[in-house]
Structures are given as structure tokens and as C-alpha cells.
Design goal:
The chain is α+β, with helices and mostly antiparallel strands and 82 residues long. It has a single domain, classed as Winged helix-like DNA-binding domain superfamily/Winged helix DNA-binding domain (Arc Repressor Mutant, subunit A). It is built from four helices and two strands. The protein starts with a helix and ends with a helix.
């Protein structure tokens, strides 16, 4: 089944909440590598995620703006997610 961009963005934001490298994010989100990298760049440009160095590896984390989006999404669509 084809997922919308919104669904992919939400999957990425949820994964970034766990300080995750791109390789593990590929498995967690089930998004193609080239598509994932493009979507990450969009989210980074808009300030929802950022790339940081942690123990000599790069990981993606949520910014406060990204956490707010996830919280609002969860609050709004809570009944659909259960």
C-alpha cells in the first residue's frame, strides 16, 4: 500500500525521537534510502530534526518544533491510531 508524504514524515519524526542513525531509521520507517534522505533534508531545513554527532557517529534527533508537531498530531488523531 502506498503511503502519503505526511505518513512518511510522521514515521521519520517518530523514529528521530530515539536518536537514531540513518541505517536504523531505514528499517524503522520502511522508507527507501534515497526518499528517506530527501525527506530528512526537508525536515531539517524546516527545523523539525537535526543531525548531531554522538559517540563518533551521526544520529538524527527531534527539535522542540518536531516534538510539538508529533504531540499535536497524536492529540488530533489519537482516536484513529488506536
Amino acid at each position: 500500500m502506498h503511503r502519503s508524504k505526511l505518513e512518511m514524515y510522521i514515521a521519520i519524526l517518530q523514529a528521530c525521537g530515539n536518536k537514531i542513525p540513518v541505517t536504523r531509521m531505514l528499517y524503522a520507517t520502511n522508507i527507501n534510502c534515497s526518499v528517506l534522505k530527501k525527506l530528512l533534508m526537508v525536515l531539517e531545513t524546516k527545523g523539525y530534526v537535526e543531525k548531531i554527532s554522538l559517540k563518533s557517529r551521526s544520529v538524527w534527533v527531534l527539535t522542540s518544533k518536531g516534538r510539538n508537531v508529533l504531540r499535536i498530531f497524536s492529540d488530533t488523531f489519537e482516536d484513529l491510531l488506536t
